[in-house]
Amino acid sequence: MLLAIDVGNTYTSIGVYRDDVLEGNWRISTTGERTSDEIGMFLLSVLRHAGIGPGEIKAVIMCSVVPPATHPIINAVKKYFELDPILVGPGIKTGINIKYENPREVGADKIVNAVGALRLYGGP
Known about the structure:
Elements: E1 2-7, E2 11-18, E3 21-29, H1 36-49, E4 59-64, H2 67-81, E5 86-88, H3 108-121
Parallel strand pairs: 1-4, 4-5
Antiparallel strand pairs: 1-2, 2-3
Helix pairs in contact: 1-2
């Protein structure tokens, strides 16, 4: 199963996928004040509520536009799932050609949205 985390300015969206099927999704307010233990316990709790054990999570991918919230989530994933999350950001190969003057200024959330749209609907 894949755990996907999208850290936005207002909300953090979390989804868990079995193959291409969304098994559960949750949303919490984004703050850089949570500790990795708070995040880890929250993730374990919502997964347990959905009937998903932590050992079923085989990969984690995340994007973040809120740097203070990023590292506690990465640390929580490492500690509670014993996985290294893939962090979408500058330099990651997505198959999308970003024709922005400075591609590093494009938010990771915009990149993953474009990748998702391309996968769902195709492109030119």
